[in-house]
């Protein structure tokens, strides 16, 4: 741990922002909180989350979460004093009263003697010498109905990074300012076909010195394939929920859906589908997902359109309330034939995950207000579009991360 701690004292991550004013206006939109809530707990009635742990909070994440969730008590822990002191500065700048910070390793989080409704741990567990010990420690402080939001590195998509890590080791590159500057210049001359090139083009701060050090000179980093994520969770008594952005893992989304393999993929169980799509895409660099205690009472893996007899009610979809994901955009220019708009989720890095919509689908889309349920929305557009087509469109919107459902009344 000391190597990792020393690393983050020298290179606090992310690059410390001076303030979080840009987030204040975003967080005024209550839809952001509701969408995050129902991503974690689709079938609970929306309520403010009470206790949130941000584990390995870095320079700013805990302050941002405390701003976003003013009614929650937020606890941030990290092993890096430098990162915590940046967070304290933000806390002062924004007068954040609902945040408590501790220099404490995740492995010893039980010493807080507190349990949490929500645990956020992104970009951290893959840096632990024993990620299993870390995840078990987090599970043990999660309340039975609590939810975790985890992000760990993805193995295949990082292969270019591992090549460059080996390259830096061969050359004995260290992390002084001059070495990082020279490394950054050398990477700008990288052949465009190099497996690292696509990572660099989708990560806007990749060439920032601290981000570069984090990616290429880190003393400790594990990465996971989709089946390895599932196996790791199993060993830790943790149940997988969903990918926060699920479209990149689904064979029903994007270019793969139009290939001769779409039907074959569709016959596999969901975890195998996701494993296959990760291999097909090749450049997924992180796995960001929700997870729950295996012994707790929280959400089961959930498909809102599952109409098997075992699902809770026959017409359960009637009661689903769709909400637009706030970081999606609707483009109405330079459209493909037959489309009146194209929907984009800005969190997606794969260009084939755009979703064209026609005139009738556009009417359904504009009826989404976060209040009306699907029966009301479909009913209001019944003359223009059949129930079957409307439902298949809502399923697509969900698969493409354009909407999240509040299923609390199902
Ligand atoms: C890549 S940064 C991620 C920061 C933040 N979670 C985010 O997403 O912006 C990793 C952070 O985890 C912290 N960290 C590493 N090992 C840790 C451990 N065992 N316990 C607590 N924090 C740790 C580091 O100090 C660093 O601040």
List keywords for this structure.
single chain, 410 residues, alpha/beta, Rossmann fold, Outer Surface Protein A, domain 3, 3 domains, three-stranded antiparallel beta sheet, 16 helices, binds S-adenosylmethionine
Q: Would you give an account of this structure?
A:
The mean pLDDT is 92. The protein folds into three domains: 2-155 and 223-293, Rossmann fold (3-Layer(aba) Sandwich), CATH 3.40.50.150; 156-216, no CATH class; 316-406, Alpha-Beta Complex (Outer Surface Protein A, domain 3). Helix content is 37%, strand content 17%. It is of the alpha/beta class. It starts with a helix and ends with a strand. It contains 16 helices and twelve strands. It has a seven-stranded mixed β-sheet, with helices on both faces. A three-stranded antiparallel β-sheet has the order 9-10-11. The longest helix has 13 residues, at 81-93. S-adenosylmethionine binds at residues 1, 4, 8, 13-14, 56-58, 61, 77-80, 83, 105-107, 122-124, 127-128, 214.
